[in-house]
# Entry
Amino acid sequence: MSSFDYDLFVIGGGSGGVRSARLAASMGKKVAIAEEYRFGGTCVIRGCVPKKLFVYASQFHEQFEDAAGFGWTVGASTFDWKKLIAAKDQEIARLEGLYRKGLTNAGAEQIESRAEIAGPNSVRIVKTGKVVTAERIIIAVGGEANHHRSLPGHELCISSNEAFHLSELPRSIVIAGGGYIAVEFANIFHGLGVETTLIYRGKEILSRFDQDVRRGLHQAMEAKGIRILCTDVIEGVSKAETGVLNVQTKHNGVLHADQVMLALGRDPYTKGLGLETAGVAVNERGAIIVDQYSRTNVPGLFALGDVTDRVQLTPVAIHEAMCFIETEYKNNPTSPDHDLIATAVFSQPEIGTVGMSEEQAAKAFTEIEIYKAEFRPMKATLSGRAEKMIMKLIVNAADRKVVGAHILGHDAGEMAQLLGITLKAGCTKDDFDRTMAVHPTAAEELVTMYNPSYRVQNGVRV
# Structure
């Protein structure tokens, strides 16, 4: 008979927490999972799922325009923001219900309350004040938006969280940030008819992505009418008597907008969690430090997902949860594999990427080969749209292994998932060359780029 109240207690009902709780409970373990807001976490409730629904909504105005080139006559169209919000809320509620149902069917106890560490193997349920014990505790509370509280007027700004619940669609918006959240929302709001300005301190948006796809996206966004101000920052925000926000910038004077959105990254959600009570080690950003098996420095206490600030992606948190189950309950030590993770930016056009950028590969290898194609997709020929697609493969010249693949264009995210398998398997450029093309598709360019566009030797393009 265990001396603990639970075999496993999970703090946080996001993707990683729910997966670990459900799997452990299905194995007969006594499991409780506590969530202070809604089950489903950032991704399902206020992140990638509602965002993707907004992306779809924002694309229709271009699709209506494109239809004319294919012989369709489309009448006058209008957009109802409140209907989109209501439909989105209904879908999110459905998904949350599925998460809860999975936990219930597995036999995991669901606690609707904030939970905090009360000591080794101890958790306090904030709503009731009750302290319970568990043989193992997982912290999977994720991250929170950086509200940039040092910015004068930050309280007048919204984050991506509030963007999903605005009562009215703004006529204009200024978005601060150059990462994927900022870029995606800039495209969403612009697609819904909002005058959109993106301001970013760096020289180019999406600084961690390959140079060609981020520059290509920058150009495409500006061509659509999105104003992008690089190498600039917001110094303060104030509200005029009319309700309009005055946005003071460092180099571009005062901007005026109905809304200001801060998309300046996300921080681990560890403040006030009681980590110091148990002596849990964190880094300078507040992220919980873990080993290769997601163990903290405190025996019996683990951390998964964004709260560890390893790779902030939903599938990664789920993968880490599955590795925890294998290691702790199946006697099969398994460490998460964070190498070659395919990812997508649901901008317009999309970015899909896996592996090294050209810049990274040039530093890692003596010589690399770059295969790049830039072309107008077939759909754009009749619609008259001036968009372009970019396909790029990075190859280590020494062994011909493809070490990076990058796409800008329609369905880039879908292609990146399949390329992830290819690169994970260690395929070479010769394997790509031997593969028959599917015609007519954009993806066929990936297997028909037979000659390198250029090479980079010792960091120098030749």
Remarks:
- The mean pLDDT is 95.
